[in-house]
Write the structure tokens for this entry.
Amino acid sequence: MKQVVAALIVREDEILICQRTEHQPLPLKWEFPGGKIEPGEQPAEALARELEEELGIRATIGTKVASLQHSYANGNAVELHFFLVRECEGKIENRIFRDVRWVPLTSLPDYDFLEADLGLVRDIAAGLLLEGH
């Protein structure tokens, strides 16, 4: 099972979301930035590396707020680890996505997210996940 990390980059009542390009698997779906954990990497190290590569930021990786497993119809299975990020250095640059935007937490369900993220998206929008973090 592929091990994947993702960042919930939050400022006030907004969260950063990213849209895949038409050339990536699951094209034009929205997701949280992150990526695969490489052999020998710790999850937080992998996430810091991915955020540097994808967005050009040096993030302070916070608490792990959720983990989940998901199997797609094509047979691919992932285990996702979501970390809270409240601090980062550098200006966010869109290096690989079709679009990157800050959106209100409550509007997350309005976006066409990856299937694996849907439960988490609903929980965040309902105020169930990031309260008190």
Remarks:
- Residues 2-125 form a domain with the Nucleoside Triphosphate Pyrophosphohydrolase fold (CATH 3.90.79.10).
- The helical segments are 43-55, 118-125.
- The beta strands are 2-11, 14-19, 30-31, 34-36, 58-60, 64-71, 77-85, 87-89, 99-104.
- The mean pLDDT is 95.
